[in-house]
Design goal:
Distance between the termini: 64 Å
Low-confidence stretches: none
Shape: elongated
Largest sheet: none
Strand content: under 5%
Number of strands: 0
Radius of gyration: 27 Å
Number of helices: 2
């Protein structure tokens, strides 16, 4: 589409409506996911993860 717009601008021809750029903003997928997450908040897990072993080796 950029090639079409550039060509029309160089030839000084009016750009048709379908060739105009869309608005910039968040993608529809991001908006949909944000709306879903707002309606369905995730519940916090009540399960604690396993403890990691202590990294201290005592050789300091």
């Amino acid at each position: 589409m950029i090639g079409l717009r550039a060509t029309l601008e160089m030839l000084n021809i009016p750009i048709p409506d379908y060739a105009h750029r869309g608005y910039s903003g968040p993608t529809p997928a991001k908006v949909t996911i944000a709306a879903f997450n707002a309606d369905n908040p995730a519940l916090r897990s009540m399960v604690l993860p396993d403890r990691k072993p202590n990294a201290y080796t005592g050789t300091n």
